[in-house]
Each structure stands twice: as structure tokens, then as C-alpha cells.
Design brief:
alpha/beta; 4-stranded antiparallel β-sheet; 15 strands; single chain
Length: 396
């Protein structure tokens, strides 16, 4: 009788064989063991608005959400999401048939890809991409086709011709992220219009990750792809509360889409978490109704922190790509005489007492991302000032 332990078949599903521990877990663990300042993983080091936190406490005490909430999400949050989309962007969604609450944007992306892809479908994604994109495409049996954002005049730009050439008869879906993590690029209206035309022409679905929609700087504007002609019926728009309100641990995200698309996403989502974050959903509903002054002040605070960290990184000798959105700065380590971002990030805690993330892990074309390193600036100002002081020691 042959023991199961003698089998030569790997234990891990082959679709996930290329994926190990996420770079965020590795770098955050390194921060703990070395005592370094963690500018790697993108989470704030302070909580968001006190009134929103108190709304969660009130929901807990009132018994709202302590048991399973409705599968699509609590009505109050679905209504608040619909109101947000209309007030901000003029997009009208039915809270009952076109809004779905998820366990953060990460689950929304997973459910969208699992619900909409068949094995062998191609997914065109902008590279570098958030690491869960590749894993979710793999779990759905899809094939990822990266289109690389390349540095140009201080920012990372999309080559629309390269995007068009990447679309084949097997392409099912475009997966977009704007404002873009990790590069900080915000796609322009002209770029989005061209993407919309391509999607309509080739009859493509589009999944858009818009979690940094409220973090745009220098007068830039975030424009949802769903607002362009022909896109309302073919776009799955995703956002979340974590980045906008600094409660990343609550894991409250949402999807807005036409009923048929939303049904496909919901069908997959119900077998992932089923439901999550009950009391927090009520609190996020209140957060979305905060006055405009909150969003303006939050954006101004993050822009000041961006300028502090970007300036310090430049003084430390990095090549700096100043972001137009998100709360990350991508740097080029070649001016420091370095070329391997992964090795650089693993040595940085000992060399300078700071943790960053190598962008190469967000690329299929690893060599294209090798010299780039990402730093998060969603931290308290004294923490950023100390990080800058430490990093300046690299300049000798």
C-alpha cells in the first residue's frame, strides 16, 4: 500500500506554484525583526476619523451587524455607495441590483475575476501590478498579459499602441488600476477615452481598481472609466474604505456594475467570504457621507507627506518619480550605484533602518522593474522625518 506522503505530486495547486509569501509579509516581518521603520506595506500608522470609529462602536453596541449581514451588504452602505458614485461622478447605480459590498477591494477583484473568466481567457493588466492581480488571474485559470508602464519625464506612462497590440481574440478582460499602485500614475481623460474606445471596439469587459480615488495630487482628477461612452454596461468598478478613511483592518470594499455583471461577481463572492465586516459596514456608510472638508484635508495632508518623503529621498540620492496619486513614491536606485531592488530592500533595514518594497515583484518582466523601489508615505510626519534622516546616510 502506497503512502500518500510518497506521492511526487506537489501539495500546492500548480496554478499557485509561482506564488509564495507576499512581499508585504516578508518586508513587514523584516521591519519587526530589525526594528526598522516600515515604509513598505501600505497601511497608515494612525486611525481615521474619530466619528467613524465611534460609528462602528455604536453599531456593535446596538447589535447591528454582529450577526450575518445581508449577502449584498447592508442597505445603508449600498445606498451610501450609490450616492457617492452619483454625487462625485454622475454615475447612477441601483443600490439593490448594482452595488455589492465585499471584504475589501482584494476580495472584490478575486470575485470579479473568478466570476467572469473561463480557463484560457486572457487578461490584459498594467504592469507593475498589485500582487493579488496575478494570483487571482491564476486561480481563475486565466492568462495574464502585462502591458508595461514605462518611466517618461518623471512619471510612468501607458503606451496606448502597446495596449492595443496586447489585445487578441482570446482577450476577455482589461484589468486597470488608477490611481496606480505602485507607480502613482493617474490615467488622463485622453488615455481613458482611448481605453474605452478599445474596449467597445473589441467587446471587452473591464475591471477597474479605484481604491485611491480620493488620493490625487497637483490638481489631477480621478475619472472613472464607467463614465465614458459604452462603458457603463461593461465595467466592474471597485473601491474600498481602507485607503480613504485609514481603517485598512476593517476590510470593507464594494463593487458597482450593471446587474448582469454584478450577478456574476456576486455569484463568486458568496462562496468566498459570504459576508464580512458587519458593524463596520454601518460605520463606512456614515464615513462616505462626511463633508467635503474631510476629503480635502485628507488629500492635503497626504500631499504634504508626499512632498516631505519625495524631497528626502531625492536628497538621499534616489531618483524620484513623484506620484500624482496613491500614497507611494517609486524611486530609482541606480543613482545610488545599485541595480537589484530586491537585494537592496533586503539589505536596507540593516544599512539605514528603513523598510521598503521592491517593485520587481509586481512585474512579469522582472528586469523592467529591477531598479525600482517603493516607499509608503501614509505615516505620521515625525516617522517620515526620522526615515528621511536615516535614508540620507546612504548619500554618504
Amino acid at each position: 500500500m502506497t503512502s500518500m506522503s510518497s506521492s511526487t505530486r506537489p501539495l500546492l495547486n500548480r496554478r499557485l506554484a509561482e506564488f509564495g509569501t507576499t512581499i508585504f509579509a516578508e518586508m513587514s516581518a523584516l521591519a519587526v525583526t530589525t526594528g526598522a521603520i516600515n515604509l513598505g506595506q501600505g497601511f497608515p500608522d494612525t486611525d481615521g476619523p474619530e466619528e467613524v470609529r465611534e460609528a462602528a462602536v455604536r453599531a456593535l453596541r446596538d447589535g447591528r451587524g454582529n450577526q450575518y449581514p445581508p449577502g449584498p451588504g447592508v442597505p445603508e452602505l449600498r445606498a451610501a455607495v450609490a450616492e457617492h458614485q452619483f454625487r462625485r461622478y454622475g454615475l447612477s447605480y441601483d443600490p439593490d441590483t448594482e452595488v455589492l459590498v465585499t471584504a475589501g477591494a482584494t476580495e472584490a477583484i478575486a470575485a470579479a475575476l473568478l466570476g467572469l473568466l473561463e480557463p484560457g481567457d486572457e487578461v490584459v493588466a498594467l504592469e507593475p501590478y498589485y500582487d493579488s492581480y496575478a494570483a487571482c488571474i491564476a486561480m481563475a485559470g486565466g492568462t495574464r498579459v502585462p502591458v508595461t508602464l514605462r518611466p517618461h519625464e518623471g512619471a510612468f506612462r501607458l503606451d496606448l499602441d502597446e495596449l492595443r497590440d496586447a489585445v487578441t481574440d482570446r482577450t476577455r478582460l482589461l484589468l486597470l488600476n488608477t490611481p496606480h499602485n505602485p507607480t502613482g500614475t493617474v490615467l488622463t481623460r485622453e488615455e481613458l477615452a482611448a481605453i474605452a474606445e478599445l474596449a467597445v471596439e473589441r467587446d471587452l469587459l473591464v475591471v477597474t481598481d479605484e481604491v485611491y480615488e480620493h488620493l490625487v495630487f497637483d490638481g489631477a482628477q480621478h475619472t472613472p472609466l464607467a463614465t465614458f461612452p459604452g462603458m457603463r454596461k461593461r465595467t466592474v468598478s471597485i473601491s474600498s474604505a481602507g485607503k480613504t478613511f485609514s481603517f485598512t483592518g476593517w476590510k470593507v470594499g464594494w463593487v458597482t456594475a450593471a446587474p448582469a455583471l454584478l450577478t456574476a461577481v456576486r455569484t463568486a463572492k458568496q462562496y468566498l467570504t459570504y459576508v464580512a465586516s458587519g458593524p463596520f459596514q454601518y460605520a463606512v456608510a456614515e464615513a462616505l457621507a462626511l463633508p467635503e472638508s474631510y476629503f480635502t484635508a485628507y488629500r492635503a495632508d497626504m500631499e504634504a507627506k508626499r512632498d516631505l518623503l519625495a524631497g528626502g529621498l531625492a536628497e538621499a540620492g534616489f531618483g524620484v518619480h513623484r506620484p500624482t496619486g496613491t500614497y507611494f513614491v517609486t524611486t530609482d536606485i541606480r543613482p545610488l550605484g545599485e541595480r537589484d531592488g530586491i537585494a537592496f530592500c533586503r539589505s536596507l533595514p540593516e544599512r539605514a533602518g528603513v523598510v521598503a518594497v521592491p517593485n520587481a515583484v509586481f512585474y512579469d518582466h522582472r528586469e523592467a522593474g529591477a531598479p525600482f523601489v517603493r516607499f509608503a508615505f501614509c505615516k505620521r510626519t515625525p516617522v517620515l522625518e526620522e526615515a528621511v534622516r536615516r535614508l540620507k546616510t546612504l548619500a554618504g
